[in-house]
Amino acid sequence: MTLTENPLASTEATRTFDSLDPTTGDVVGTHPIHTDEEVRAAVERAREAGRWWSALSYDERDTHLSAWKGVITRRLAQLADLMHRETGKPHGDATLEASLAIDHLAWAAGNAGKVLKRRKVASGLVMANQAATVEYPPLGVVGVIGPWNYPVFTPMGSIAYALAAGNAVVFKPSEYTPGVGEWLAQTFLETVGHPVLQVVTGFGETGAALCHAGVDKVAFTGSTATGKRVMAACAETLTPVVIEAGGKDAVIVDQDADIDAAADASLWGACSNAGQTCTGVERVYVHERVYDEFVAALLEKAKGLRADDSPGSHLGPITMPKQLDVIRSHIQDALDRGGRALIGGVDAVGERFVQPTVLVDVPEDSLAVQEETFGPTVTIAKVRDMEEAIARTNATRYGLGSTVFAKEHGMEIAGRIRSGMTAVNGVITFAAIPSLPFGGVGDSGFGRIHGPDGLKEFTYPKAIARQRFKPMLALTTFTRTEKADQQLAQLITMLHGRGTTIPKGPQAPQGGLNRRRRRRG
């Protein structure tokens, strides 16, 4: 990024910065560095427009969002090209990303009413005279701070769902992809005609300004370290946050897995988008009986996979230059501690591109196993059984996504992994299903985007109790009688006094996955 002065400014010079093509270093666009005052003004514009937007019915908002969806779809090639120029990712990957975002926009718009509108809930026997309802009104203005690695799909997981829920949005895209953010806001304004979606651009200071600008919630995607700073900034005004932070996602391969499919998915999950994926594959744990077969299959598929600027390349450059040092240090640490590079290595890290690197025999406490690498690298480890695979998978502070390849026990293994999402016999498939929540645990963050949970994330639950007729027992009054107290005690005893019998002794099944395996021989 380079700082310049805007020559068109008529009064005080406006500070600007350039977004650069990471493949060539060419300037893609020049954008303003919005000040605190300008960010606050954007929030106020959004709040004013949001009053109109929130007053619309769910069907009316669906109509507007569907029209926006149509514009994005018809200009898909234009958006993909802009993403390609700002991130360096291949056009095909950019098209895939934008297409999935469109699908999520359609789901959010079409399902918001069913998830959020007022509905009846049971009032219970004690309060039988009350009609109970719950609904989910919008918060107001949501601030979205987006990442550069998936500049459309990831922020749209917050933008689309917040808008569908009735909120206005102020979006601060990454300083590496500001053009994509402006493109989204401009097409929305062209379609809807009201500035319900605003965009502000700049660096970390602009994001901090958004946290302090009076928004009603902040949705952040980025590193764990930056997520903590966002939380600290929002805590000053008690602004709630949803954090989607880093990951160190693992693949578990059982002995009965489809090895060819597992190898293909692991390689793609590790190297697609040049490895710059929060839910990308960074670790693989393979049952010892199929370890050699798996490694051989993955290496065979990796032949000819190159990261360069040729038109047919499947891998683009590393978008953020300083990440090159992180990738290099993780590989070097793994090798220094006894690991081996079957392909790639330290020399695979170039000035802009990183070639695929496959590491084996890497200690579990090394950087390449414990810390997010965010490059086209993967560690593969042999395990004696699935108990060991699960234990190693769970032995990091992250818990975003995960993958299991197994025929018989895939769902059982998936249920024991400490992560927000798991794909069974696929990779990152959960992200493409709009009805599934997306988010992590531990240092991978908290809160959810996507699905019904993602819609509710940008609302607050509103409970209403309406008296239908006078109560049989007058309880909420100072004229309550002793007889009423006795009747209440009798009613509660009748409803809840019997309880259940707690079984004595250990009841859990013995042996787990390994015992069942031994029975099979």
UniProtKB/TrEMBL annotation:
Q: Where is this region: Disordered?
A: 1-33, 498-521
Q: Where is the composition biased (Polar residues)?
A: 1-17
The UniProt entry, under Pfam families, shows:
Aldedh
Q: Which UniProt keywords apply?
A: Oxidoreductase
Domain Aldehyde dehydrogenase positions? 13-464
Q: Which domain of life is it from?
A: Bacteria
Q: Which CDD domains match?
A: ALDH_DDALDH
What the entry lists under InterPro entries is as follows:
Ald_DH/histidinol_DH, Ald_DH_C, Ald_DH_CS_GLU, Ald_DH_N, Aldehyde_DH_dom, Aldehyde_DH_NAD(P)
Q: Please tell me whether the keyword Oxidoreductase is annotated for this protein.
A: yes
Gene Ontology molecular function: any one: oxidoreductase activity, acting on the aldehyde or oxo group of donors, NAD or NADP as acceptor
Keyword set includes ATP-binding: no
* GO biological processes: aldehyde metabolic process
Tell me which residues this entry annotates as catalytic.
E244, C278
What family does the entry list?
A: Belongs to the aldehyde dehydrogenase family.
The molecule here is called Aldehyde dehydrogenase
The species this protein belongs to is Nocardioides luti
